[in-house]
Amino acid sequence: MDSLPLGLYVHLPWCERKCPYCDFNSHETAQIPEQGYISQLLKDLEREAAALGDREVSTLFIGGGTPSLFSGEAITALMGGIAARLPLAATLEATMEANPGSAEADKFAAFHAAGVNRLSIGVQSFQDAQLQALGRVHDSDSAHRAIDAAKAAGFTRFNIDLMHGLPEQNDNQAKQDLHTAMELGAPHISWYQLTLEPNTVFYTSPPALPDENLLADIQDVGEALLAEGGYQQYEVSAYGRVGDRCKHNINYWSFGDYIGIGAGAHGKLTSHDGGVRRYSKTRKPDDYLSDSGFKRVGEKVLNAAELPGEFMMNALRLNTGFEIADFTARTGLEWSAVAETVEQQIARGLLEQSGNTIRASAVGRRFLDTLIAEFLVEP
Ligand SMILES: C[S@@+](CC[C@H](N)C(=O)[O-])C[C@H]1O[C@@H](n2cnc3c(N)ncnc32)[C@H](O)[C@@H]1O
Ligand code: SF4
């Protein structure tokens, strides 16, 4: 098979303060061991690169944690080190996550000069009361300043992360946040519904969240507002015009390949014989810092029973769905492996087919977990 598009994910696992709703691999620290960590990342990458031949990387995503806590010098060293170890596409999309603290906005120009060409700014809300309820370290003013700084630094492509369904939020407040992001000219908006994740403070001490009816109202008014503003929904939580969409994430959802480096980073690679392999890296930052082998933890080749579920879990998140030929090319399975289930879900109204394209219907998108479960193997 032809090589699939290849992305590179780099995980920087530290934050100024752990947010009470967050279950990402992120750890509070006062001092980041920048040099030691960048050096480990590059060794990790070297091992990965050795197995890849000359496959070109088309997208890079530096996520966290809070990558913008790193200095401009550290990100310059990281970007240079990556370019020295892997062939990068001339059109490389290089995204970095940033929190809207003022110390961080001061570094945006340095990140841009280092080769980062897309910022994803974690605003969450433009309302101070809501930011406090979420335990964020920044206020609305600093979010505005960070967006100004991103534009001044030359970022023509940036994303604003917003969450909705926040403690005691009503639909007007949720609308107001979207309005502000649109007024500020965000080319892309990620609009996530707050979820209570196990192992978080919010899970053990839940705040008062909007009830189901209000959540559905917020979803409806928000989607309508985004559509009016020209932000096309292309994935469950992602909105933007075609040229502004996040190519790195689209590659995940299209079941493309990606390398993962850094503490707890995940990777997925497809080999020439069609085998699809998933792995992750040592999760705890301290263990990763002292790791000399960069062993892939939990490495596993997906079997024929697991592949349909893994594919659908990604591809059905995209509003455009997928082409039948891509299912075969990316899983190595015949269409007959899922044809009957697909037919059943079309009959149920959860999937729709047009020519050779399959996608979730509007109802299917609302009950996406139920739909995907039809393709998962029984435990
Ligand atoms: C990797 S996180 C963090 C990026 C950055 N550190 C920040 O917090 O601004 C990416 C995004 O996921 C979203 N997110 C995190 N936890 C969430 C949760 N429990 N429910 C919904 N969205 C969540 C937030 O919008 C966040 O900006
Ligand atoms: S939401 Fe962002 S800033 Fe907060 S703990 Fe998670 S990764 Fe860190």
Automatic annotation (TrEMBL):
Q: Which InterPro entries match?
A: Aldolase_TIM (IPR013785), Coproporphyrinogen-III_oxidase (IPR034505), Elp3/MiaA/NifB-like_rSAM (IPR006638), HemN_C (IPR010723), HemW-like (IPR004559), rSAM (IPR007197), rSAM_sf (IPR058240)
Ranges for domain Radical SAM core come to: 1-232
Q: Which GO terms describe its biological process?
A: porphyrin-containing compound biosynthetic process
Q: Which cofactor does it need?
A: [4Fe-4S] cluster
Work out whether the entry's keyword set contains Acyltransferase. Answer: no
- What UniProt keywords are attached to this protein's entry? 4Fe-4S, Chaperone, Cytoplasm, Heme, Iron, Iron-sulfur, Metal-binding, S-adenosyl-L-methionine
Q: What is its main location?
A: cytoplasm
- Pfam families for the chain: HemN_C, Radical_SAM
What cellular-component terms does GO give this entry? cytoplasm
GO molecular-function terms, A-Z: 4 iron, 4 sulfur cluster binding; coproporphyrinogen oxidase activity; metal ion binding
Where does this protein reside within or beyond the cell? Cytoplasm
SMART domains for the chain: Elp3
Provide the family line. Belongs to the anaerobic coproporphyrinogen-III oxidase family. HemW subfamily.
Main role?
A: Probably acts as a heme chaperone, transferring heme to an unknown acceptor. Binds one molecule of heme per monomer, possibly covalently. Binds 1 [4Fe-4S] cluster. The cluster is coordinated with 3 cysteines and an exchangeable S-adenosyl-L-methionine.
Its recorded name reads Heme chaperone HemW
Which organism's genome codes for this protein?
Parahalioglobus pacificus
Taxonomic lineage of the native organism: Bacteria, Pseudomonadati, Pseudomonadota, Gammaproteobacteria, Cellvibrionales
